[in-house]
Design a protein that fits this description.
Oligomer: single chain
Distance between the termini: 29 Å
Number of helices: 1
Largest sheet: 5 strands, antiparallel
Radius of gyration: 15 Å
Structural class: mainly beta
């Protein structure tokens, strides 16, 4: 990722991290169920907008986007139902739109998705 969005929105991140929008790896932890643990930088689990235009529900940016992060960094456990209709996840994150944890803040953020 490059350009004015990365320069403005990721300016607090160190060096090369300013250029990463999404990068994570996952491991399936059940042989019979679709249960995964993923770690890295994800698209946000809340909100209807993204830094990537094609992923936005609206054609233009809205005020809703200003109250939700575009990305997050941490660990996620996710389960998809056998019929693929339901997805649930729990997340432990570095905070609001943060790749690197802020100095002096040792408390992780938590989230969930259904």
């Amino acid at each position: 990722m490059a350009g004015t969005y990365a320069n403005a929105s990721l300016s607090a991140e160190p060096g090369v991290m300013r250029n990463i929008l999404e990068a994570y790896a996952g491991v399936k932890i059940s042989k019979s169920k679709n249960l995964w643990i993923d770690a890295g930088i994800f698209s946000s689990h809340i909100g209807f907008e993204s830094a990537v235009g094609k992923d936005c529900w609206n054609l233009t940016r809205g005020i809703l986007a200003e109250n939700s992060p575009y990305y997050e960094c941490g660990v996620k456990i996710g389960y998809t139902s056998e019929d693929g209709k339901w997805f649930a996840s729990g997340l432990m994150l570095n905070g609001w739109q943060r790749i690197q944890r802020v100095e002096g803040n040792n408390t992780p953020a938590f989230g969930h998705q259904l």
